[in-house]
Amino acid sequence: MYGCEAWTISKQTQKKLEATEMWFLRRMLRISWTAKKTNDTVLEEAHTTRLLISKIRKRQATFFGHVMRREKLENLVTTGMLEGKRSRGKQREKLIEGLEDWLKARKSLEAIEATKDRKKWRTMIANAVKQGT
């Protein structure tokens, strides 16, 4: 998870991370791959929920808040507000778009404004972690 603050997590990447996490749980609980147990029963046995994606999103949100409060070059790069032409083809997902979905913010501007007040930003992150992904 080193450097996960800068990842952009697409739906395909999220599915792969969840599958890897489930594989880890099955290995730790010594559940054979031939045993017909659903993922829900494995999660119940482990007394856990899906932790990997929510931990990554939390780290991304704290890093994003740090970058937005500094208001330097990293701020411009993260928000994607640079001059020039856009590249051809489908545009890549930005970090702020993924956080916007996770935090359930109506607009990216709302998330950016929330980073100015640390207390408000931390409560937004805590609420998103409680709700899960």
How would you describe the overall organization of this protein?
This is Endonuclease-reverse transcriptase. Keywords: Endonuclease, Hydrolase, Nuclease. GO terms for molecular function: endonuclease activity. It comes from Plakobranchus ocellatus. The two termini are 18 Å apart. It is elongated and about 55 Å long. The mean pLDDT is 81. The chain has helices at 11-28, 39-46, 52-70, 73-79, 95-103, 108-116, 118-131. Helices cover 63% and strands 0% of the residues. The protein has seven helices and no strands. With 133 residues, it is mainly alpha-helical. The chain folds into two domains: 10-46; 53-84 and 91-131, no CATH class. Helix 3 crosses helix 5.
Describe the secondary-structure layout.
Elements: H1 11-28, H2 39-46, H3 52-70, H4 73-79, H5 95-103, H6 108-116, H7 118-131
Helix pairs in contact: 3-5, 3-6, 3-7, 6-7
Q: Brief overview, please?
A:
The protein is built from seven helices and no strands. It has helices at about 10-30, 40-45, 50-70, 75-80, 95-105, 110-115, 120-130.
